[in-house]
Amino acid sequence: MIENMYNAFVCEYNEPRESFERLLEFMAADFYFPLSLQFEYGIEQILKRARLVEKLKKHYDPGLLSKDVCDPLGDLYCELFAPMRTQTLSGSDCTAIDNAHTSEFKRALVDSRVGTGSSLIQYSKKHPNTLLYGVDRDLTCIRIALINSAIYKVPMLLLHANPDVHEIDPSTENGRFNWQYSNCWDSHMDRLKEKQH
Q: What would the mean pLDDT of 101-127 be, rounded to a whole number?
């Protein structure tokens, strides 16, 4: 389904990377509409293209996406644009942090290589009372993670940052400052505070 939708965008936009970005915008607007207010082009630009909308109607079934926890957007992204990122798309660098200040969540977890969020989604199924933080250097991965978070209804905070340079520990003052820029469609990496050595 996702590949057919991507191909419909390619037929319309004639450029693979732009087509993928428009596909992500379409998916984000459908699953979490407030994100669409941050888009560069706006979802209405996509919806004005009647031929594209007709093709999407044939292929798109949002209910099908949420049935199984899988990552078709991440898989397609890796196949098309980031073949060397396969091992990091699922995340693998998690750190538990002190979460005594929040009574709603029993624990908190920071994944500094969250990829497209699938590892945090899997983790949340086993540990539902965990506050989830995800960081990645790849803005497209963060965007896919935001969509996956909405598809699977797993709340998480996602930040476009370089964990080697930027403070990502939400229990520190600089970390809390940086997390105010989480869950944004566009990058705010230039505003983030760096780690203090």
A: 85
